[in-house]
């Protein structure tokens, strides 16, 4: 009888829920204004981050020995190791907790915090000088964006080649190349990365800085879409969401740190060249042609080389981030 009692107790213990000390933490999801959020208090321990309020319900810092995140209430941007990264929706803070958009945990934060590793190096890079031919791009004081994206691509191609990479350009002369054909050319060349090169413009001459775009995940609105675009279907390029985000973040970090330019953040967009890319892809806006100071950098061969070298640094950082230790 005693033996039967022991067996019954053992069965009850084995079938009972694990004790609080051994339970696997679970992310707590909440819905607010029709959007799914995650409670940071439940996510931070899983991500290995320690929270610290800088200003209650306004500013929160999350940190471990590798990453520091800075969150602000009602902001679509998060500061990650000193670099701005745009989210799909604003952060919300209340009752000594913060809410992060659920979609951004998997598509934005996890790729940065816990990248999956690979041993496959980047061998071939497709450079895409924006515009060309009758498509001039931005125009400022008689100068055309298409001229300077091509000059940048050629300089960047030289530096990448010296660093051991193979390079192919979507255009090497002043000719028009349709947007849909650019990622196709990268795929036909079996490129490992696709980097589209552009310069920015704005109605306000004071606008300045650098920004790097990766493809918007399905279900999210693009950075500049004003909340629209969340119902856009999955694109070919979305199969590379994790690598796209990593490449954009590390490229933005390299540009900001090496050049000392204003950080406009790693952003999201559904540009056609990103939608149709069959490899990790980013689009770089290297400076503002509409800003007199930055325009001088664009036209300067010395500054162009500095920008090209920063992009090379971004590629190398990306390889290291995903686990490639040697070329």
Can you put this structure into words, describing what you see?
- The model is unreliable at 1-22 (pLDDT under 50).
- This protein is 34% helix and 26% strand.
- It starts with a helix and ends in a 6-residue tail after the last helix.
- It is globular, with a radius of gyration of 23 Å.
- With 327 residues, the protein is α+β, with helices and mostly antiparallel strands.
- It has 9 helices and 17 strands.
- A hairpin with a 4-residue loop joins strand 5 and strand 6 (77-80).
- Helix 3 crosses helix 6, helix 4 packs across helix 9 (301-321) and helix 6 crosses helix 9.
- The protein has a 6-stranded mixed sheet with strand order 13-10-14-17-15-16, sandwiched between helices.
- It has helices at 2-15, 40-47, 102-113, 145-162, 181-188, 241-259, 272-275, 292-299, 301-321, and strands at 29-32, 35-39, 50-55, 59-63, 68-72, 77-80, 83-86, 92-94, 97-101, 124-129, 139-140, 143-144, 166-169, 193-200, 210-215, 263-269, 281-288.
- The protein folds into 2 domains: 29-113, Copper amine oxidase-like, N-terminal domain (Copper Amine Oxidase, Chain A, domain 1), CATH 3.30.457; 124-321, Aminopeptidase, CATH 3.40.630.40.
